[in-house]
């Protein structure tokens, strides 16, 4: 039995709230159960120096956790003078995931930065961030389209979403919360597109090594879960901002 009482293939309650930021060109508050992440997409009419005059744009991401996103207050990374390795790894993952479904030439020489700030953490912050970041990016592009800057369907090639899966109490389960994540025998994150393409798989054995058969079981759970998330994304962006 999972601590939450969910079936092994049952995700937490997922919700998306768009247009939550007055100033950002695109924004989304995403909730995977008690994990809440604010995603804001910001447009800049410039690209990094190494992309100048190349005819392509750039999509990148930044990630952070608020001091009381967890049970104990964490020190802000800004006060330490540098970002931690986990933060850097996650924000690079988010950026790679978004760029996998963006035509950078169609974007033009512009940069979109998606900031993912964890308001409350209960496991799966990176997967929630990726899934919500896609909606913020979509709405930023719609903002641009309304001003005749781009055509969204030309820039955004597909959906992208992510979910965690793992082996908990010897069972493959989907969308681990903190209680499961902290005690999981195997922990993995899957990022996939709406058409089923694999963007990234991160998997780690916390105790005993896992088998190929177990990996395939986790992947099947992830495939079905991401299909659900993509359907939810489609339903959400079909409505008015």
Order of helices and strands: EEEEHHHEHHEEHEEH
What summary fits the major beta sheet?
Answer: 5 strands, mixed
For CATH, the homologous superfamily is named as: GHMP Kinase, N-terminal domain
Number of helices: 7
Shape: globular
Please report which band the strand proportion falls in: under 5%, 5-15%, 15-25%, 25-35%, 35-45% or over 45%: 25-35%
Which CATH architecture is right?
A: 2-Layer Sandwich
State the low-pLDDT regions, or none: none
Q: Give the mean pLDDT.
A: 96
Strand order of the largest sheet: 1-2-3-5-4
What is this entry, summarized?
Homohexameric ring arranged as a trimer of dimers. This protein is α+β, with helices and mostly antiparallel strands and about 240 residues long. The protein is about 35% helix and about 30% strand.
Q: What would you note in describing this structure?
A:
The protein is of the alpha+beta class and 241 residues long. It has a single domain (14-238), classed as Ribosomal Protein S5, domain 2 (2-Layer Sandwich), CATH 3.30.230.70. Helices cover 33% and strands 29% of the residues. The protein has a five-stranded mixed β-sheet. It has a four-stranded antiparallel β-sheet with strand order 7-6-8-9, with helices on both faces. Helix 2 (85-99) packs across helix 4 and helix 4 runs parallel beside helix 7 (212-238). The longest helix is centred in the C-terminal third of the chain and has 27 residues, at 212-238. The protein is globular. The chain starts with 13 loop residues before the first strand and ends with a helix. The model has no long low-confidence stretch (mean pLDDT 96).
């Amino acid at each position: 039995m999972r601590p939450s009482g969910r079936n092994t293939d049952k995700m937490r309650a997922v919700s998306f709230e768009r247009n939550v930021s007055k100033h950002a060109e695109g924004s989304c508050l995403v909730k995977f159960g008690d994990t809440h992440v604010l995603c804001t997409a910001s447009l800049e009419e410039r690209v990094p120096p190494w992309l100048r005059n190349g005819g392509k744009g750039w999509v990148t991401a930044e990630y952070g956790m608020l001091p009381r996103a967890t049970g104990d207050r964490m020190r802000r990374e800004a006060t330490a003078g540098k970002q931690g390795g986990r933060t850097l790894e996650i924000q690079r993952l988010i950026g790679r995931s978004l760029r996998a479904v963006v035509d950078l030439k169609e974007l033009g020489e512009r940069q979109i930065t998606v900031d993912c700030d964890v308001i409350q953490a209960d496991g799966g912050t990176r997967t929630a961030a990726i899934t919500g970041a896609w909606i913020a990016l979509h709405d930023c592009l719609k903002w641009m389209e309304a001003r005749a800057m781009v055509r969204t369907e030309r820039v955004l090639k597909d959906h992208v979403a992510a979910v965690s899966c793992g082996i908990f109490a010897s069972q493959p389960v989907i969308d681990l919360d903190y209680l499961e994540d902290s005690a999981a025998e195997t922990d993995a994150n899957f990022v996939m597109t709406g058409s089923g393409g694999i963007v990234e798989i991160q998997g780690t054995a916390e105790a005993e090594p896992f088998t190929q058969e177990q990996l395939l079981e986790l992947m099947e759970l992830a495939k079905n879960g991401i299909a659900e998330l993509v359907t939810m994304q489609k339903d959400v962006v079909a409505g008015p901002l």
